[in-house]
């Protein structure tokens, strides 16, 4: 059992497509099948369920896949440590962030890192910022740009890089929501049964809305927000507010970088919303790996 075989199986386990894996590793599907059979013989267990239409992992295959990922990571770390001793650092570092962070904060981070370590390959995945910690905990990525959770997962470290204000926003266009806002602001009172609200489905900003809403309603649990939609990602939320669908809450950095920011207005309220810390998170048990350590050092 060699590192190449583990890399091949890990790719197959993640994509569940024999032809694709065989092409990536420059082998025929029949050669790949023999490799899988050899691995199954070595571990004395069936690793894959396979028929003419689909491929899936057996329970033993799932365990072996985790083993493959751990061994591949250890091999990459060994290579990185040797390269570091020789005055160079190579390898692949996987990152996760929101679309907004990809152009608001990540460029400066990567520029500094690449200036010192130009041979390191960067793999980037973008998505909902609220999923950042989960991506790291699932070992889908090495590091993620994330908002500090109210309760930081015990398995993770967090390196803060910025404080991000949060704002309640509404549309500027002439629409029903704008009419309601103008009416409520003139009366200094909001009817939450009629004003539509757009919320992130989860994450630190959503929890800040819940806290703010309880303050706005003086803790009256009988008053519920009129939720128009729950969305994944603040970029989509800001766009829906700009279209006049409702009011919402979003990080100021998302608003400032949105292509529809001119269609957004900030709603001033009696109770301010607390800022959150934006930073880079990773697993504690990976913090001393050379590539991760080098990236964090570049943030300091």
Number of helices: 12
For the biggest β-sheet, the strand order reads: 4-3-5-12-6
State Rg: 24 Å
Uncertain regions spanning at least 5 consecutive residues: none
Overall morphology: elongated
Mean pLDDT over the residues = 89
CATH class (first level) name of the largest domain: Alpha Beta
Strand content: 15-25%
Instruction: Give the SSE string.
Output: HHHEEHEHHEHEEEHEHEHEHEEH
Query: If classified by CATH, what would the architecture of the largest domain be?
Result: 3-Layer(aba) Sandwich
Distance between the termini: 41 Å
Number of strands: 12
Content-based structural category:
alpha/beta
Overall structural domain count: 3
Structure commentary:
It contains 12 helices and 12 strands. With 300 residues, it is of the alpha/beta class. The protein starts with a helix and ends with a helix. Helix 1 runs antiparallel to helix 2 (18-24) and helix 1 (3-15) crosses helix 4 (59-85). Helix 9 links the parallel strand 8 (196-200) and strand 9. It has 3 domains: 3-74, Orthogonal Bundle (Arc Repressor Mutant, subunit A); 89-163 and 278-299, Periplasmic binding protein-like II (D-Maltodextrin-Binding Protein, domain 2), CATH 3.40.190.10; 166-274, D-Maltodextrin-Binding Protein, domain 2.
